[in-house]
Structures are given as structure tokens and as C-alpha cells.
Design goal:
Number of domains: 2
Largest sheet: 3 strands, antiparallel
Radius of gyration: 52 Å
Length: 223
């Protein structure tokens, strides 16, 4: 509060002019700031919009990446689940294959040990046994079937051929329909005996090895 007893100092004209200049300069400065405010606001708004668009694109890329990862994970889990569920069937399949190999080897050994002799095949004597041996037919494992075909020289009609295991076929003079049938019956009887004696189940050690392989595979997939 101004004391009424305090005398007021007279303001000089020069001070009034100086005050007016300060006020005018302030107004001009304020106007300059206002003139620059609009471009600044426009530029700042553009910057904010650009950053918002970039943020939206980044979030969209991130979302797609997460979706791909999720889909890949689901696919992988389904694949692993399918493999785990199929391990029991795989074990059975491997056991069947192993038993088939074991039986085939057993039958092959039995046929190779069944030698062709004159006393075993009706109508085939020692001479024909020697002729067959000369053509590589010594055991029941050396041939698989017989068939009729044109004579080797193309004359004399059809003759009986013996098909060897290697794929080639031979004709033995003196072996026709009757002796060929006897030869095949002898082989079929030997094959039937061999198949009957072949193992019908896997030995315990082989089953254990297969089960161990399957279990190791189960542990790997679960891991």
C-alpha cells in the first residue's frame, strides 16, 4: 500500500519514451513468436503422425512375427505328438521287418543246404543231376521256377526252361514237362519245410535292442 504521505516522483519524457520502446519491442517479439508457432505446430503434428504410423507398422510386424512363431510351434508340437504316438507302431513295424529278414535268411540257408540228388527227384537220374550242376543248379536255392519258351536255336518248338535265382534261364536236354514238374515239386517241398522251421518270433535280445532304440527316440522327442 502506498503511503499517501510519500511524494510521487515525476516521470521524465525520456523515461516514458524508453518505456514505450520496451513495450513495443515486447509486442513485436510476441508477434514474431506467434508467427512461428503455426509452422512449428504443423511440423510437430506431422512428426507425431509419422511416429504413430511407424509404431503401428512395427506393432503389426511384431504381431505377425509372433503369429508365425505360434503357428510354427503348434505345427512342431503336433508333429512331435504324432511321432510320439507312432512310436509303438514303429516298434511293431521294426520287429516285423527284423523277423522277416530273420526268416528269409533262415529259409535261404535251408534251401542252400538242400542239395539235388538223383534219389530225391522222380525221373531225374545222376546224368541229369550232373547236367543241372554244370548249369549252376545244385540246390533248391539255385532256381525259383520253370516255364515254357521257344528253343534256344529257334527250332523244334517250345522247351522247358529253368529260371535261376540270378535271373537267367537255362534249358537242360531231357527235362520236359514231367521232370520239370517233379523238379518244382521237390523245390516247393523243400521251401515248405524251410518256412515251417524258420523262426516265428524274434529272439529276446533283438526285441530288447529294438525297444531300446524306440525308447531312446521317445526320450529325444520328449526333450
Amino acid at each position: 500500500m502506498i503511503d499517501s504521505t510519500t511524494p510521487l516522483r515525476d516521470t521524465t519524457p525520456s523515461e516514458i519514451r524508453a518505456e514505450r520502446r520496451r513495450i513495443a519491442e515486447s509486442v513485436q517479439a510476441h508477434r514474431r513468436l506467434l508467427s512461428k508457432r503455426r509452422p512449428f505446430e504443423v511440423s510437430d503434428r506431422r512428426r507425431l503422425n509419422r511416429e504413430a504410423r511407424e509404431r503401428d507398422r512395427a506393432e503389426a510386424r511384431h504381431g505377425k512375427a509372433l503369429q508365425r512363431i505360434h503357428e510354427k510351434q503348434v505345427k512342431c508340437e503336433r508333429s512331435l505328438t504324432g511321432k510320439l504316438n507312432g512310436l509303438d507302431g514303429k516298434r511293431e513295424s521294426q520287429e516285423r521287418k527284423a523277423l522277416a529278414v530273420l526268416r528269409r535268411e533262415s529259409v535261404d540257408r535251408a534251401l542252400r543246404s538242400t542239395h539235388l540228388t538223383a534219389s530225391q527227384v522222380n525221373g531225374i537220374g545222376s546224368g541229369l543231376v550232373r547236367d543241372l550242376a554244370a548249369q549252376g543248379v545244385r540246390t533248391a536255392a539255385d532256381f525259383r521256377r520253370v516255364s515254357w519258351g521257344k528253343a534256344p536255336n529257334g527250332k523244334g518248338g517250345e522247351v522247358l526252361y529253368i529260371h535261376r535265382m540270378q535271373g537267367s534261364k537255362v534249358h537242360i536236354n531231357g527235362i520236359g514237362e514231367h521232370r520239370g514238374r517233379s523238379l518244382m515239386e521237390w523245390r516247393q517241398a523243400a521251401l515248405a519245410r524251410a518256412e515251417a522251421r524258420a523262426p516265428h518270433e524274434l529272439p529276446a535280445d533283438q526285441r530288447h535292442r529294438i525297444a531300446e532304440i524306440i525308447e531312446n527316440e521317445r526320450v529325444r522327442l520328449q526333450g
